[in-house]
Design goal:
By secondary structure, the chain is an all-alpha fold. The chain is built from five helices and no strands.
């Protein structure tokens, strides 16, 4: 009997939608000075540079995770992808959006907004533990558990 495959998009659109809304609302509230605005003027240029770099890295990670890995085909064919960008992070698509939205927050240059990436990570952890990681453990068992021991959930670095 053939195993059913995971949903192509999983909880991704919900998660990305939530962090997009949070980024947009808090950026607008900050821009309009409705929420406190705290910055160091000396950090304006460095924050813009950091923000731009994060956005570029996020786009690169997304392209690697979505297109180069052919993730849609692998999901349909029930293949666990552990190579390429997936050898650095188990969730490169979500990681990419965290990088892009964090880059936007750096460009906004309001130090108060930099709490949001920690909220993004917390939401990702809640979404992943309760849904996709459970699905993957059920579908791939030991192979996925071993993979989790080697690769972080969203920080793109390999473990030893």
């Amino acid at each position: 009997m053939k195993k059913e495959h995971l949903p192509i998009y999983g909880v991704g659109p919900i998660y990305v939608g939530i962090i997009l809304i949070l980024t947009t609302i808090f950026s607008l509230l900050s821009y309009k000075r409705i929420i406190p605005y705290y910055q160091f003027s000396i950090l304006n240029i460095p924050f813009i540079i950091i923000g731009g770099i994060l956005i570029i890295i996020g786009i690169y990670i997304w392209i690697q995770g979505a297109f180069k890995s052919k993730i849609d085909d692998n999901i349909i064919n029930n293949k666990l992808v552990t190579t390429g960008i997936y050898s650095y992070t188990r969730n490169p698509l979500y990681t990419a959006f965290i990088f892009v939205f964090t880059g936007i927050l750096f460009i906004m240059n309001n130090l108060y907004l930099l709490i949001l990436p920690f909220i993004y990570w917390l939401l990702l952890t809640i979404f992943m533990i309760n849904t996709e990681e459970k699905w993957l453990k059920d579908l791939y068992s030991k192979e996925y558990i071993d993979y989790c021991k080697k690769v972080n959930r969203c920080i793109p670095i390999r473990r030893k």
